[in-house]
Amino acid sequence: MNRPKRVFTRGELAVLVFTLTYTAGFSAWFLSIRNYEFIWYILTMAALILLIGWTREAARFPVPLLWALSLWGLAHTAGGGVPVGDGVLYGLVLVPLAGSGELVLLKYDQVIHAYGFGVTAWLLWHLLTVHFPQMRGTRSVYFYPALGAMGLGSVNEMIEFTAVLAFAETGVGGYYNTALDLVFNALGAVLAMLVTAAIERRRGERGTGRRVHE
Length: 214
Known about the structure:
Blueprint: H1 10-32, H2 36-59, H3 63-81, E1 83-84, E2 87-88, E3 93-98, E4 105-107, H4 108-131, H5 140-166, H6 175-213
Antiparallel strand pairs: 1-2, 3-4
């Protein structure tokens, strides 16, 4: 007997409506200014939205994770669509820590890379603990999601490289920009897993404390 499909919860619907709203708005904006490079990224985002929707029953994504993914999408599209000075938000230097040109730190772009692939590591950790709960409490359950997020970060750079080949003008940047993207992807992934490990350890300690008192 087929199991009935799980309906969308109110939390999931809220994330979906929010995501579709800003995606439609930015799509219209990019078309109006003829920024076809970011239309390419919008299409990539649409594919990811469909993938999450298709797998949501098996994956059992928590709503906070869905919000984190949606906010990453918003930050990404805003980065390419919100004008700042002579460029866009992605080129904005948030805190002038060091360097110049493509090696300048710390830019909006770098922060979003760290955030986005930190969220990716969280997503991979969630999938691993859902489908292989016996791995919970091991070092591997943090190690593999961090590595997986770094790998997906490399896929993201391949998508950007495809945009460079497909469009005459892009805001992707050169070699140093790509290398810094990969570094911040890794930093975000590792930091996310360190935070997750700390939270899990604290939960375990609380659970042990409750059992002792009982």
